[in-house]
Inverse folding.
């Protein structure tokens, strides 16, 4: 990263760094550039692709359709009902 880019970022984000803060930021960005370069130079040809860092196991239950409640048992809790439905106040006119 160059001073010009850092100045543009300061303007874009509406903040100002002191000279010491600018020097420290440039050191951090230089370190990040070295790390990126090191990663780019790493031979990964015989490395297996990894999606997760830990082995993943499907822990979900089987998707089985079931009806745990009867319509009548659900209607018992209705404050007001008509035949086979709950009656609720109208919200939209």
């Amino acid at each position: 990263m160059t001073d010009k880019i850092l100045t543009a970022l300061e303007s874009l984000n509406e903040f100002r760094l002191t000279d010491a803060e600018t020097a420290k930021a440039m050191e951090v960005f230089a370190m990040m550039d070295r790390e990126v370069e090191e990663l780019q130079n790493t031979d990964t040809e015989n490395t297996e692709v990894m999606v997760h860092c830990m082995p993943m196991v499907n822990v979900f239950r089987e998707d089985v359709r079931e009806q745990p409640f009867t319509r009548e048992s659900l209607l018992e809790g209705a404050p007001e009902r008509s035949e086979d439905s709950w009656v609720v106040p109208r919200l939209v006119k």
About this structure: The mean pLDDT is 87. Residues 3-40 form one domain.
